[in-house]
Write a structure and sequence with these properties.
It contains 16 helices and 13 strands. It is α/β, with parallel strands linked by helices.
Length: 385
C-alpha cells in the first residue's frame, strides 16, 4: 500500500517509538520520531506532519501542554492529533479532548485498532482539504548569471520596480546574497540587515509574519528584503534551508516575488530554483561567458525535470559591439536558445543611481534601457497568464 502521509510520534518511551514506528512503516507511512514534548513541537513546525501520535506522560512537557502549543500555530491548528497513552481514566480523556486532540487511545492496543483509528483520522482530513482556503503562492522570479558581475542585482531591482509600476501589484524583491548586498548602498536604505536577521533564526522559526517585519518599504512601490555587504556577518549554518523558508514565507505576503540569486554557487541553489516559476538567465556576449551560461542553462533545465518553469535569456551589452559576439552568435552557441531581451549599456544612468537613490528606470523613464526593462516586465506578465 503506497502512502505519502507523514506521521510524527512523540513519546519518551524509546520502545514505543521503535515498535509503533516499525508497524506504521510497514503500512507505508513515513515516520518522524521525537522523544520529548519540546522536540515534538519543533519537529512538527519544521516537518508539518499529516498526523501526530502523542503520549501524555513525558518529563518536560506533558501531552496536554504539547497539544495546546501545537494548536496555537496556524500551520498546525488542523493537524489531527491522536493521544496514545496508558492513562485510561475518563478525566484524562476529557482533558485530552479539551486540549484539542482529535482521538484518544489507551495502551496497550491491538495494532489493527491503532491503524484503523489513524486511517479514519487521515481520511477525514483528506475529505476536508478541498474546502480549505489557502493563500495562492506568489509568482516567483529568480535572476541568475553563470558568474558574478553580470548585473543580476541591477536587473532584479529594476524589473521589480517596473513590474510594480506596470501591474499596480504588491511586489517583494529579495537580495538573496548574504554578505554581498548592494541595494541598500545604491538606494540609500538605512536598514540593511533584514536577510541577516532572518538567517539568525532556526528554519522553523521563519514565518510570514516574521519576514514581513524585516521588509523595507520604498517610495517606488516595492518592498525589499536587504542584506549586509559584510561577508563576516553571514552564518552559513543550514543556509540553504533557511533561504528556502524565507522565499516560501515571502510568497505568502505578495503576489509577485523577485529574487536576486546572483550565481549558482549559493547554498541550496537547486532548492531555490525549484521554488521559481520563472528564471531569468543573464549573460554577456563574450565567448567564455556564453560557454559557462550553456552549462548553467542545462543545469536549470534538469532541476525538478523543468517542472513547467519558464527560462528567459537576457543579454547585457556593456561594451562596443565590434568587440563582442552578435546576438545571433550567442543564440547559436546556446543551442538555438532565443534571446528574450537585450539590455543596452547605460553607464551615465548607472552613475546617477547612487546620486539619486532610485532604480535606474526611475532616473530617466524614457531611456532605452528603461524601455527594455519595461518590455521585459510585460513579457513576464504574459507568461504568468
Amino acid at each position: 500500500m503506497a502512502m505519502s502521509e507523514k506521521i510524527l510520534i512523540v513519546d519518551d518511551d524509546v520502545e514505543t517509538l521503535r515498535l509503533v514506528g516499525l508497524m506504521l512503516q510497514r503500512q507505508g507511512y513515513k515516520i518522524l520520531a521525537a522523544n520529548n514534548g519540546a522536540q515534538g513541537i519543533s519537529m512538527a513546525r519544521a516537518e508539518t506532519p499529516d498526523l501526530i501520535i502523542l503520549d501524555v506522560m513525558m518529563p518536560d512537557m506533558d501531552g496536554y501542554q504539547v497539544t495546546a502549543e501545537l494548536r496555537k500555530d496556524p500551520q498546525l491548528a488542523d493537524t489531527p492529533i491522536l493521544m496514545f497513552t496508558a492513562k485510561s481514566q475518563v478525566d484524562d480523556k476529557v482533558a485530552g479532548y479539551d486540549a484539542g486532540v482529535d482521538d484518544y487511545l489507551t495502551k496497550p492496543v491491538h495494532p489493527a485498532e491503532l491503524i484503523a483509528h489513524l486511517k479514519a483520522l487521515l481520511s477525514r482530513t483528506r475529505a476536508r482539504q478541498p474546502d480549505k482556503k489557502t493563500t495562492p503562492a506568489a509568482y516567483v522570479v529568480g535572476v541568475v548569471g553563470c558568474k558574478g558581475g553580470l548585473g543580476s542585482s541591477t536587473l532584479a531591482i529594476n524589473l521589480a520596480a517596473s513590474y510594480a509600476k506596470l501591474t499596480k501589484t504588491n511586489v517583494i524583491a529579495i537580495e538573496l546574497k548574504p554578505g554581498q548586498g548592494t541595494w541598500a548602498t545604491e538606494l540609500g536604505c538605512t536598514s540593511v540587515n533584514g536577510l541577516n536577521n532572518l538567517l539568525e533564526l532556526l528554519p522553523d522559526e521563519i514565518k510570514p509574519s516574521v519576514v514581513e517585519k524585516q521588509l523595507t518599504a520604498t517610495p517606488f512601490g516595492i518592498r525589499l528584503l536587504l542584506t549586509s555587504n559584510i561577508s563576516l556577518e553571514t552564518d552559513y549554518t543550514a543556509l540553504g534551508d533557511k533561504l528556502q523558508k524565507i522565499i516560501q514565507a515571502a510568497s505568502q505576503l505578495s503576489s509577485f516575488v523577485i529574487l536576486d540569486i546572483g550565481t549558482p554557487f549559493i547554498p541550496g541553489f537547486d532548492k531555490i530554483c525549484s521554488l521559481c516559476k520563472n528564471i531569468i538567465v543573464i549573460t554577456e556576449p563574450q565567448k567564455s561567458t556564453i560557454k559557462r551560461t550553456r552549462i548553467l542553462y542545462d543545469e536549470l533545465r534538469s532541476i525538478g525535470s523543468g517542472m513547467g518553469r519558464v527560462i528567459n535569456l537576457v543579454l547585457y551589452n556593456r561594451v562596443r559591439s565590434e568587440v563582442q559576439l552578435t546576438s545571433t552568435q550567442v543564440s547559436e552557441m546556446l543551442g538555438g536558445t532565443p534571446i528574450t531581451m537585450m539590455i543596452p549599456p547605460a553607464p551615465e544612468l548607472a552613475y546617477q543611481v547612487s546620486l539619486n537613490n532610485l532604480p535606474l528606470i526611475n532616473i530617466q523613464t524614457d531611456s532605452l534601457v528603461a524601455q527594455q526593462i519595461s518590455q521585459l516586465a510585460r513579457i513576464i506578465q504574459t507568461q504568468i497568464a
